[in-house]
# Entry
Amino acid sequence: MVIRKTLRRLLLFGVLPLAVVFLAAFLFPRQVLLVDDGRTQADAIVLLGGGSGERPSRAAELFRSGVAPKILVSGAGDTPGNRLLLMNRGVPAAAIELEPDSRTTKENAQFSIPLLRAAGVKRVVLVTSWYHSRRALKCFRHYAPDIAFFSCPSYYGFSRADWSREHLRRRIHAEYMKTLGYWLCYGVCPF
# Structure
Protein backbone atom coordinates (compact mmCIF):
# COMPACT_ATOMS: atom_id res chain seq x y z
CA MET A 1 0.00 0.00 0.00
CA VAL A 2 2.82 2.41 0.89
CA ILE A 3 4.59 1.62 -2.38
CA ARG A 4 1.47 2.37 -4.42
CA LYS A 5 0.97 5.65 -2.62
CA THR A 6 4.62 6.59 -3.22
CA LEU A 7 4.34 5.68 -6.90
CA ARG A 8 1.18 7.80 -7.28
CA ARG A 9 2.92 10.77 -5.67
CA LEU A 10 5.95 10.31 -7.89
CA LEU A 11 3.71 10.21 -10.95
CA LEU A 12 1.62 13.17 -9.85
CA PHE A 13 4.45 15.43 -8.68
CA GLY A 14 7.37 14.21 -10.79
CA VAL A 15 6.57 12.53 -14.05
CA LEU A 16 3.36 14.34 -14.93
CA PRO A 17 4.80 17.89 -14.64
CA LEU A 18 7.84 16.78 -16.62
CA ALA A 19 5.58 15.38 -19.36
CA VAL A 20 3.65 18.66 -19.47
CA VAL A 21 6.92 20.59 -19.87
CA PHE A 22 8.06 18.33 -22.73
CA LEU A 23 4.69 18.63 -24.45
CA ALA A 24 4.73 22.43 -24.14
CA ALA A 25 8.29 22.56 -25.50
CA PHE A 26 7.26 20.48 -28.52
CA LEU A 27 4.11 22.51 -29.18
CA PHE A 28 5.67 25.95 -28.60
CA PRO A 29 9.31 25.81 -29.75
CA ARG A 30 9.56 29.53 -30.52
CA GLN A 31 8.55 30.43 -26.99
CA VAL A 32 11.20 28.05 -25.61
CA LEU A 33 14.11 28.26 -28.05
CA LEU A 34 13.90 31.79 -29.45
CA VAL A 35 15.77 34.68 -27.84
CA ASP A 36 15.53 38.03 -29.62
CA ASP A 37 16.92 41.07 -27.82
CA GLY A 38 15.53 43.45 -30.43
CA ARG A 39 17.40 46.36 -31.89
CA THR A 40 20.59 47.09 -30.00
CA GLN A 41 23.90 48.80 -30.76
CA ALA A 42 27.09 46.76 -30.64
CA ASP A 43 30.77 46.86 -31.50
CA ALA A 44 30.52 43.74 -33.69
CA ILE A 45 28.19 41.14 -35.13
CA VAL A 46 29.14 37.47 -34.92
CA LEU A 47 27.59 35.46 -37.73
CA LEU A 48 27.44 31.76 -36.90
CA GLY A 49 27.79 29.21 -39.69
CA GLY A 50 25.00 26.88 -40.70
CA GLY A 51 21.48 27.56 -41.76
CA SER A 52 20.25 27.96 -45.31
CA GLY A 53 21.62 31.37 -46.26
CA GLU A 54 19.22 33.24 -44.00
CA ARG A 55 21.90 34.02 -41.40
CA PRO A 56 24.16 36.12 -43.68
CA SER A 57 21.10 37.97 -44.97
CA ARG A 58 20.13 38.90 -41.40
CA ALA A 59 23.71 39.90 -40.51
CA ALA A 60 23.95 42.11 -43.62
CA GLU A 61 20.59 43.70 -42.79
CA LEU A 62 21.79 44.51 -39.27
CA PHE A 63 25.11 45.84 -40.57
CA ARG A 64 23.41 48.11 -43.14
CA SER A 65 21.06 49.46 -40.47
CA GLY A 66 24.06 50.52 -38.36
CA VAL A 67 23.84 47.97 -35.55
CA ALA A 68 27.61 47.33 -35.66
CA PRO A 69 30.57 48.40 -37.84
CA LYS A 70 32.03 44.92 -38.39
CA ILE A 71 31.06 41.28 -38.75
CA LEU A 72 33.00 38.25 -37.54
CA VAL A 73 32.02 35.17 -39.58
CA SER A 74 32.48 31.97 -37.56
CA GLY A 75 32.31 28.38 -38.73
CA ALA A 76 34.40 25.83 -40.59
CA GLY A 77 33.31 25.38 -44.17
CA ASP A 78 30.79 28.23 -44.12
CA THR A 79 33.07 31.23 -43.86
CA PRO A 80 34.01 31.73 -47.53
CA GLY A 81 30.43 31.36 -48.72
CA ASN A 82 29.02 33.53 -45.95
CA ARG A 83 31.66 36.18 -46.67
CA LEU A 84 30.56 36.28 -50.32
CA LEU A 85 26.89 36.43 -49.35
CA LEU A 86 27.64 39.35 -47.02
CA MET A 87 29.56 41.22 -49.72
CA ASN A 88 26.77 40.57 -52.24
CA ARG A 89 24.39 42.16 -49.72
CA GLY A 90 26.42 45.34 -49.39
CA VAL A 91 28.89 44.61 -46.57
CA PRO A 92 32.40 45.85 -47.49
CA ALA A 93 35.15 43.22 -47.37
CA ALA A 94 37.13 45.39 -44.93
CA ALA A 95 34.28 45.08 -42.39
CA ILE A 96 34.40 41.27 -42.42
CA GLU A 97 36.72 39.10 -40.32
CA LEU A 98 36.82 35.32 -40.53
CA GLU A 99 37.08 32.60 -37.89
CA PRO A 100 37.15 29.49 -40.12
CA ASP A 101 38.04 26.72 -37.67
CA SER A 102 35.02 26.16 -35.39
CA ARG A 103 32.79 23.15 -35.98
CA THR A 104 30.35 23.48 -33.05
CA THR A 105 28.57 26.25 -31.20
CA LYS A 106 30.99 25.77 -28.30
CA GLU A 107 33.93 26.21 -30.68
CA ASN A 108 32.23 29.22 -32.30
CA ALA A 109 32.35 30.84 -28.88
CA GLN A 110 35.79 29.60 -27.84
CA PHE A 111 37.47 30.60 -31.11
CA SER A 112 35.61 33.90 -31.64
CA ILE A 113 35.99 35.30 -28.14
CA PRO A 114 39.79 35.80 -28.30
CA LEU A 115 39.36 37.66 -31.62
CA LEU A 116 36.65 39.85 -30.09
CA ARG A 117 38.77 40.58 -27.02
CA ALA A 118 41.82 41.41 -29.16
CA ALA A 119 39.69 43.94 -31.04
CA GLY A 120 38.47 45.50 -27.77
CA VAL A 121 34.87 44.52 -28.42
CA LYS A 122 32.52 44.94 -25.43
CA ARG A 123 29.08 44.47 -27.04
CA VAL A 124 28.26 41.76 -29.59
CA VAL A 125 25.15 40.83 -31.55
CA LEU A 126 24.91 37.14 -32.39
CA VAL A 127 23.18 36.12 -35.61
CA THR A 128 21.99 32.55 -36.01
CA SER A 129 18.73 30.75 -36.75
CA TRP A 130 15.84 31.45 -34.37
CA TYR A 131 15.76 27.88 -33.03
CA HIS A 132 19.52 28.02 -32.26
CA SER A 133 19.46 31.47 -30.64
CA ARG A 134 19.05 30.42 -26.98
CA ARG A 135 21.88 27.89 -26.96
CA ALA A 136 24.22 30.15 -28.94
CA LEU A 137 23.57 33.16 -26.70
CA LYS A 138 23.95 31.17 -23.48
CA CYS A 139 27.13 29.52 -24.79
CA PHE A 140 28.83 32.83 -25.65
CA ARG A 141 27.76 34.34 -22.32
CA HIS A 142 29.06 31.27 -20.50
CA TYR A 143 32.55 31.50 -22.04
CA ALA A 144 32.85 35.32 -21.94
CA PRO A 145 30.89 36.86 -19.08
CA ASP A 146 32.97 40.03 -19.51
CA ILE A 147 31.41 40.74 -22.94
CA ALA A 148 27.75 41.73 -23.40
CA PHE A 149 26.10 39.42 -25.95
CA PHE A 150 22.74 40.00 -27.59
CA SER A 151 20.70 37.85 -29.95
CA CYS A 152 19.16 39.08 -33.21
CA PRO A 153 18.31 35.82 -34.99
CA SER A 154 17.09 35.22 -38.49
CA TYR A 155 13.47 34.19 -38.75
CA TYR A 156 13.73 31.90 -41.72
CA GLY A 157 11.30 29.30 -40.70
CA PHE A 158 8.00 27.85 -41.62
CA SER A 159 4.60 27.25 -40.21
CA ARG A 160 4.08 23.98 -38.34
CA ALA A 161 2.44 22.47 -41.47
CA ASP A 162 5.71 22.92 -43.38
CA TRP A 163 8.04 21.54 -40.71
CA SER A 164 8.42 18.04 -42.13
CA ARG A 165 8.86 19.25 -45.71
CA GLU A 166 11.68 21.58 -44.77
CA HIS A 167 13.24 19.35 -42.12
CA LEU A 168 12.73 22.11 -39.57
CA ARG A 169 11.01 19.76 -37.15
CA ARG A 170 14.14 17.60 -37.04
CA ARG A 171 16.32 20.64 -36.41
CA ILE A 172 14.08 21.79 -33.56
CA HIS A 173 14.09 18.36 -31.91
CA ALA A 174 17.87 18.14 -32.33
CA GLU A 175 18.21 21.60 -30.80
CA TYR A 176 16.44 20.45 -27.64
CA MET A 177 18.85 17.52 -27.35
CA LYS A 178 21.88 19.74 -28.01
CA THR A 179 20.69 22.29 -25.44
CA LEU A 180 20.36 19.54 -22.83
CA GLY A 181 23.77 18.14 -23.83
CA TYR A 182 25.47 21.54 -23.52
CA TRP A 183 23.94 21.96 -20.06
CA LEU A 184 25.04 18.52 -18.86
CA CYS A 185 28.46 18.35 -20.57
CA TYR A 186 29.68 21.98 -20.52
CA GLY A 187 27.59 23.62 -17.80
CA VAL A 188 25.91 25.99 -20.27
CA CYS A 189 22.60 26.60 -18.49
CA PRO A 190 19.78 27.35 -20.95
CA PHE A 191 17.81 29.48 -18.45
Observations:
- The chain has a mean pLDDT of 87.
- The radius of gyration is 19 Å.
- The CA atoms of residues 72 and 161 lie 35 Å apart.
- The first strand starts at residue 44 and ends at 48.
